[in-house]
Amino acid sequence: MATETTGAAGIEIHDDYCGNCEICSVVCPFEAISRDEKTGKLALDIEKCQMCGICVSACPSSAIDLVYYDIDSLINYVRRRMEETGSKTLVLTCRGSNPATGALEDILKNEEVKDFVSLRLPCVGRVPPEFFLEAIALGVKKILVIQCEEVYCRFKEGSRIGSNRFLLLQTLIDKLGHDSKTLTLVRNSMKAVYETEKCVGCGKCVFICPYDAIEWSSIGTPEIDLEACMGCGACAMVCPHQAIELKGYEYDSVSHLIQRYCIKARETRSRGITPVVMVFCCQWSEFSALDNLQTGSLGENVMFIEVPCAKGLDPVHIIEALYSGFDGVLAVTCPKEECKLEEGKEIADRNLFALRKVLRQLNLEDRFETCTTSPKYPGNFYLKLESFIQRISSITGSEMKAAQ
User: Fold this and answer.
1) Which of 199, 194, 314, 200 is closest to 252 using CA atoms?
2) How far is residue 390's CA from residue 397's CA, in Å, rounded to a whole number?
3) pLDDT value of residue 46
4) What pLDDT shows up at residue 404?
5) Is domain 71-187 given the CATH code 3.40.50 in the classification?
6) How many CB atoms lie within 10 A of CB 335?
7) Among 42, 40, 37, 51, which Cα is nearest to 17's?
8) Using one digit for the tens of pLDDT, what is the confidence trace for 264-295?
9) What is the model's pLDDT at position 293?
């Protein structure tokens, strides 16, 4: 089922600028661009598009407009952060290569990186070569690119394309007389972290893993094939003893974040700002909201937690948020056809179905809602969030009147 949409799509091919070279069609990992047999022009199928941005970065005539991550915006961000921090090191990462917490201590230590400007994007494959050259022209002395392994890329070809461009850039940078260490590429992918001493051998992780990355053992604890692991978090969600967790999204880490937000929520409510809601959002279902968490653009009454995939969202955390004092909780997922991971939507739906049964027993079902959004329709998420806030506001308002 397609996502319910509002407004226009956030990507467009401008016929007036297009040279019909078909480079965009060739590089598109999702076969979303093809030549229209009637008009002879290149056409975009928005239903197939997943907003990876690879076509935009590859277009030689800048004929494709995308509302996210244009060069000017990225360069302005880097310039501003350089002025604020005084750092001349840029760390560019894929969302899939590092968690929202930015837990990359080992990699940064190995590369001797301490103070840096961080730029986290859905995929580094969308970044055109011009960005790197302009960043160097700004005064950036070192650019560390941390991208996913190629087989792990959530956008199929993003990491491979990023690697190829990187090799060409290194050659160009060398020809221009810059230090060979100006550009450094590191591959990193989030994997399950397994603490066997906590494992009781229940086997739940074996049955839930959609990648057959966990092998059952009749005489010991299961074994994880890290090469096959795609870091979806499904195993971590079902493990009753937190023996398997995803780095950066550990059960206790998320729980501690909820409690920190709870303190902030009480402070917000004390100033008369209500309702206060918690949003758990799949990192692939929305771009702009996740990028703007530090700006406060979502409002003081909205607390946001990013999850690697909806199937890695633990229902217990939703109950914890509601019991910690949040007026409502919204879970944001991708539509099935856009899920970046195997069985992501199916597993998430089963988990949330079971959660609703529990919430019904706790008389909290009306405080919880799920919705699907896609970054291909800018603003769609914000409209759904506002609708949810209004519904929760109506509920809390009615309760206040009843209590008087």
Assistant:
1) 314
2) 10
3) 93
4) 63
5) yes
6) 17
7) 42
8) 999 999 999 999 999 999 999 999 888 765 44
9) 52
Structure tokens, 205: 């992780």
Three-state DSSP class for residue 133:
helix
The listed CATH number (1.20.140.10, 3.30.70.20, 3.40.630.10, 2.40.40.10) that belongs to domain 192-246: 3.30.70.20
3-state percent helix, strand, coil for the chain, nearest multiple of 5: 40, 15, 40
In the chain, where are the structural domains located? 11-65, 71-187, 192-246, 251-395
330-357 pLDDT per residue, tens = 999 999 889 988 887 888 888 899 999 9
pLDDT of residue 259: 94
Long-range contacts of 262-265 (CB under 8 A, 24+ apart): 262/321, 262/324, 262/325, 262/326, 264/303, 265/301, 265/303, 265/324, 265/325, 265/326
- Per-residue burial over 44-77, b if 16 or more Cβ lie within 10 Å, else e, is bebeebbbbbbbbbbbeeebbebbbbbbeebbee
CA distance 367 to 316: 15
Cα 55 to Cα 28: distance, rounded to the nearest angstrom: 6
First to last CA, the chain: 44
Q: What percent of the chain has pLDDT over 70?
A: 96
Residue 147 CA: distances (Å) to CA of 66, 180, 184, 240, 402: 22, 19, 11, 31, 54
| DSSP secondary structure string for all residues of 325-340 | T-SEEEEEE--GGG-S
pLDDT score recorded for residue 372: 94
Structure tokens at 351: 């988990």
User: What phi and psi values does residue 305 have, to the nearest 5 degrees?
Assistant: -130, 125
Contact 122, 52 (CB under 8 A): yes
Residue 268 contacts by C-beta under 8 Å, 6 or more apart in sequence?
A: 274, 276, 300, 301
Residue 199, pLDDT > 60, answer yes
